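Contributing new records

If you add data, match the layout below exactly. Sequence lines come first and carry their own label; structure lines follow with theirs. Keep one chain per record. Anything else will be rejected by the validation script.
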Amino acid sequence: MKIQNNQFLSIEQLQDQYLQQTKVNGQPADTTSNGITFQDILKQQVQQNTESAEVKFSKHAATRLSDRNIELTDNQLERLKEGTQRASEKGINESLVLVDSLAFIVNIPNNTVVTAMSQAETKENVFTNIDGAVII
């Protein structure tokens, strides 16, 4: 901080100084050498991670699928992945994802199906410990 004539700079003067320092090496401070902002890089990385992240099945969910003779088609698996991505975009942690007549409880941060059931097993239609639902 500069002191001029034994006086402190005003807030407006400090603000002007700070705002004028937003350029580093001739470019805005929040850009890389090739002109891409940090926010652009972050969005790109998040998008790549969510697009490439495959849905995993926990041991419990795999057992449930097997016990209940539920076989997922490629289309259903792709829609489950899409539902998981949508839930992630909305900030959901534990989601109910409904695909056709199948219900999946998915831990969104881990991209892991925790349990799965068909409509026949959802007699009460009550799902607990979820904070969102996606219907695909």
